[in-house]
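A further point concerns the way the authors explain their paired sequence and structure data. Each protein is reduced to its one-letter sequence and a matching series of backbone shape codes. An entry of this sort, consisting of the sequence and the corresponding backbone structure tokens, reads as follows:
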Amino acid sequence: MQNLKRYFFTITAIIIAHIAFSQGNVTLPPSGGNQKAEVSQWIGLVKVTINYSSPDVSAPDGTDRKGKIWGQLVPYGMTNLGFGTAKEGPWRAGANEGTIFSVSHDVMIEGKKLPAGNYGLHMIAQPEGKPWTIIFSNNSTAWGSFYYEPAEDALRVDVTPVKNEYQEWLTYEFEDRQPSSCVASLQWENLKVPFKIEVGDMNEMYFQNMKKELQTIPGFSWQGYNTAANFCIQNNFHLDQALVWADAAISMPFVGQENAITLMTKSNVLSQMGKTEEAQTYQEKAVYHPAAQAIFIHNYGRQLISQGNLDKALEIFELNAERNPDAWFIGVGFGRVYSAMGKYKKALKYMEEALVKAPTEFNQNNVKGHIEKLKRGEDIN
């Protein structure tokens, strides 16, 4: 009984202490009105986020601090912050707790590698005309720069600030957004501090991501494998893997489907690999497949024209006319192949038939352009 009482009093003391501690950590308005902010930017698959607190040029009491930000409120160089373990510290690149830079994948900052992760973002400000140092610290949880340790630096880069239009609130923005890069910049008062973020091999990153995705929902349909194989074809890389994916799209248990699209994808992979005869076998299977759509057959015929294989192209357009006599572009196909053969009068006859069936104004104008060329004795291909 005595032990039970002692246990009860111990638990009670812990609960009371917990309540007291919690009441001491209620959420209050931000210090000095320095509101929290966060900005993110995607560079393809890469997500970049900067989390910071945003002071304004005017002091909390309303004092105008224009001209007193750089070198005064934000001191130049490393300084003794008067608190914490840092003997001298950089600027926290914001206000309050600290600025956090997060990146989902490895990137290059100003040409130097920064691994994926969360970093404390600091800056060493300098007088006009001198470069600033941007610091990415492995310590992303410490308050501000009070506990800054150079040994925890993950990366340092030097950048040159530029003059900027007036900005009352300290702000981070992403500019010059390209498919594989962007420029992040701190902007405050009349100064901008830019730094470039680059992703190395974007296509390789997408390829590796596809390998992971095909182990999830996309891997339960032939379309996922077919799309991934075509991505490799378009970029002419990882063709061995592309062939594995093309085969999966055709014949993987419970998933694969042999149709005109999957057969043509495998043909294209084989062609890219230099296996011409095997590629042609699958190409034929694709075009003559019962499920091959009219536009699919038509486009294959056009491809043969571009390759100079006119007799085969004519055979394909005849197949399309037999299978899909109501498709309006049947006449366009015949017109193109006869034009390539130099038989302009015969080509003109088919183009005029196609004009009558053309469903939209765009199609009609396109066919009219072909007709005018044929009348002048010009090839339309």
